[in-house]
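Hi X.,

You mentioned you wanted examples for the new student's onboarding notes, showing what a folding record looks like when two proteins sit in one file. Here is a clean example. The first protein comes first, with its sequence line followed by its structure tokens.
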Amino acid sequence: MTDIVPVITADGQISGNEQLKSIQDAIGDRQFSVLAILGPQGSGKSTLLNDVFHTQFPVLEPSKSRTQTTKGIAATAVSADSKALLLLDVEGTDSRERGEKSKAFEKKVAVFSLQAADVLIVNTWFHDVGRAETATSAILRTIFDESLKLASGGDTWKTYLLIAVRDTEDDISEDDLKATVLDDVQAVWSEAAKSGRSLSDLFKIDVVALPHYRYSKAAFDAKVEYLNKRLAHPDAPDTAFDVSFSKNIPADLPNHLWKLWDSVKGIADVSLPPQKELAAAYKCDEVYSDLYNKFLSDVKPWKTAGFVENFGRRALELINSHLEKFDGETAAFKSSAIAQRKKGELKQAMLCELQTIFVRIIPRIRAGAVQKFKQGLSRTFEDVDDFQELADREAKTQELFFIQRANQCVVPGAPWSYQSERMELQTAMQEYTDEKKTAITQIQRIHAQQQHAAASQPKMTNFNFSFGFNFQFGPGGY
């Protein structure tokens, strides 16, 4: 592994030949592939590269707030089976430090990465999945726009595009997540590809769910091991570095990188929002992410609890507490539409998470009500009518118990319903009642049959003939 080399410096200049040649020397005569990672600032791009490829890219210290760590594009070369890999760690998007120039620079490094890399990893936050306007969608739009331009000019190569969804929940369905992410990607592509060209013509899309680096470390490490097998072993049968994705970079790597950067430097700057809007977007995203992760930590014990007393009230208090913290930490942008939108998204994200807990608790309340109903009918019954009368009373009692408990679990104002579980409770109690009635009826029938059989048998009568006579029989008669 080479030292970390700044291929593109923080001020947008490409490094000198000496530094680029150090990468070329590390690669030597081996075949090599290129991997680049892009995504929001502070989303763990450098950390992921370090864990998967055992590199030493600088990372953000946990004790510090999200500030810029990678500036420009940093690179290193690593050995990978019989080949070499050139890894590009790209500056994060939405950089507060770069200010109004951030969008133009982000576009340039994204285009550079697309043209250089065989494999592109794009980091995205889990809470951004399904949203229309995100930092990730802006990156994808740039990549797709440029790929279509290159294709129209005669380039025929494809790119392996891996969407790494960061900070996913432990119980998330990866199939559902992948389907949603692919829908998001397809939506961005549809906006870019007005000609109707297929996404699969230019990209192979894959999705990986990465749990939280600190709160779900074991699960995160398992996914890192999976990525290591796919990305760090190009000789393996299931490697992501298929020959069809190769950009066929010439042997003179420094000169090639110079030409690439020279071609993207002239990209026209996109229209830029005012500085205050950029600052608001950055600060609100930062506060959103920090508060949402804290919220997930707060509700984690509720996920395994059998029942959470006054869940609805406590959940509402937790939501309001985090929203108040959001207001406090973004007070400088209180009148900004961005702040109001992010606050609404934070509230909705918390409600969605709480609803997953709610739908786990309600069936447990129903099961408890069914159990109490059965216990109330556990004594022996000889008359069906007596049983039915008690069953009706118990059914009303346990349904009321269920409703009271379920109401405690609804967050005031949330459009949550427990009617389906209530109907299942009614059905379960009715089915048990019918079973018991059938059993009682059968017992009554058997008892009646036994009584009838006993009454139909002839009765034996004993007679005592004792009238005072003393008969004595002997050999000769009497």
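Then the second protein repeats the pattern, sequence line and then tokens:
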Amino acid sequence: LRTSRILSRAAVRGHATIRASHARMMSSSSISDADLLSEVNDGRIGQHALEKRCGDTLQAVRVRRSFFEDKTGRSLTELPYENYNWDNVLGANCENVIGYLPLPVGVFGPLHLDGEAVTIPMATTEGCLVASANRGANAITQSGGATSIVLREGMTRSPALRAPSLQRVEQLTTWIAEPENFEKVRAAFNQSSRFANLKKIHVQAAGRTMFLRFEAFTGDAMGMNMISKGTQYALELLNTEFPDIKLVSISGNTCSDKKPSAINWILGRGKSVICEATVRADLVQTVLKTTVDDIVQANSLKNGVGSAMAGSIGGFNAHAANLVAAVYLATGQDPAQVVESANCITQMEKDENGNLVATVSMPSIEVGTVGGGTGLPAQKSMLQLLGVQGSDASNPGANARQLSRVIAGSVLCGELSLLAALASNDLVKAHMDLNRKKPADPAPGTCQV
């Protein structure tokens, strides 16, 4: 009975939303919200087809919300949907849209990185995270700044193939290794885009199953679509030479995309970046509230011994994923790729002058400044804040490389600050101060149970 009442109230709310919104505005569609909702409820159209049916993305979102409010008996009132350009999203970023999730965006810095002052945006709901990164940036910048290098770059896609015999496995492996043949494959691959440039093919085999890990430069795009298309072209060429070797899957998991793997940790994927800073001993004491020796010990035992005891792959760090995820959300990156992009080993060493040398090495940062979520207005503005929005026409790939450097620099700031908090036993206190709201005073005349 209670459930039926909830459903009844939700239905009233849903239809009330339709009537109110219809009274407020005239849709560009020739069909009313109420008639659209009726068509969905009657099964004449699927809710996924609302945009196509009415030709108005905002109306489609509005009607879909009402449909799911009626269907689930749950209100969507707190999920905003107005004042957003859904035309940008349609066919590019999301399907079956019912609204958007506002996320707080903070900034930290400036971080002095490679001779430039950088202000870095972070989208997060974790209190203390931005403040902590800001403390790390402060210590690094006052010490003269951080430097970074992009050691190598190349997005990967690794199809799984099935050969009829071990002899054919050997023959294909040998054939690809011949420079003349590789150039044929490269020419076919590079047809996928004017930016695509196949760099190498890493061949692995398990019995008769082969994995060809294509690695390519993809300009300022993160590059998964580009490299998948290029791989398809390359496989079509290989099929003319080896028609009896069949494609099982365009992705064979040795790429390795959106999952933990040793291959990304060892061979790299996307951008392999190292970022380093020397922090003066006096600033370790005054800004980070600890000592060089204590940070070195905390890093060695926690990030070194502790991660080894845990059997970690790529997790020899304090919280690299925190920084990667926050910058990814702010700049329109694929958040699922935080899995491999946060691969990081953090090193803390005392130099001959008694100062702290802090380093993060990140072999698989996967970022782009064009495509995907980078074209959405808010995320685009954050890339503009960093000075890396879009493609660099004069030097393709430069913007994506700079973004990868910024992410490594962000991680360095976060690692430095968290390790200092752990070394001084201030972590819990900082979170209690910055990550917990103090209860508001009760209003006069109210009863607090």
